[in-house]
Design goal:
Keywords: Membrane, Transmembrane, Transmembrane helix. The chain has 199 residues and is α+β, with helices and mostly antiparallel strands. The protein is 37% helix and 30% strand. A hairpin with a 2-residue loop joins β4 and β5.
Length: 199
């Protein structure tokens, strides 16, 4: 319809209702997300548990190695300084050193070293090994030697125990090299040369 007055027409404002669209997750998406999160959590727990297990095994192995190093050094020193030894039973070794006596007692997974003077205990040292260790005391001849063999049983069918440490020492080795109190250093040197020539 034309406007005869020439004035612009005013049209009534038109209001349109715009529906608000709300986005969300479906039940299937929630279930999938929760399942994925649970799997990740289980994997993380497994990794942490495995790391702790490896750490404990490494610490136990380090403790075992330190105990074997101490045992190796102490046993060699005692045997080399000894005047003689006695073995009353397969689990006991007695070494005579000067006026004292050193007694080694072998347990299932432990080795105890005890020093006695005039049948009185002076000190005691314990070498603790892990539950898989097997300890064996050796007495060898020609030449006479004493030894300790420590093995680890992997507890696997068909797999033999692994040798962790083998300690072999000659009784009285240091006494043979040290001069006697009644012997002068020159005489000791002469006897050593004679002994070397004889060999």
């Amino acid at each position: 319809m034309n406007n005869s007055t020439g004035l612009p027409e005013q049209t009534a404002p038109i209001y349109r209702n715009r529906a608000r669209v709300c986005t969300g997750f479906t039940l299937v998406e929630l279930v999938v997300a929760m399942s994925f999160g649970s799997v990740l959590m289980l994997l993380a727990i497994g990794i942490v548990h495995q790391s702790l297990t490896f750490s404990q095994l490494g610490q136990a192995r380090a403790d075992q190695d330190r105990a074997l190093v101490r045992l190796d050094r102490q046993f060699r020193q005692d045997v080399h300084r000894s005047e003689g030894f006695e073995q009353s039973d397969p689990q006991t070794l007695q070494l005579t050193i000067d006026d004292s006596r050193v007694v080694y007692t072998f347990g299932t997974h432990t080795i105890q070293r005890q020093t006695e003077v005039n049948d009185k205990q002076q000190d005691r040292e314990l070498f603790e090994l892990n539950d898989r260790s097997q300890i064996e005391l050796l007495t060898l001849d020609a030449p006479q030697r004493l030894g300790i063999v420590v093995r680890s049983d992997p507890q696997l069918h068909g797999v033999a125990p692994r040798t962790d440490r083998q300690i072999i020492a000659v009784p009285g080795l240091l006494r043979k090299r040290m001069p006697s109190p009644k012997e002068s250093p020159a005489e000791s040197a002469d006897s050593a040369v004679t002994g070397d020539d004889a060999q």
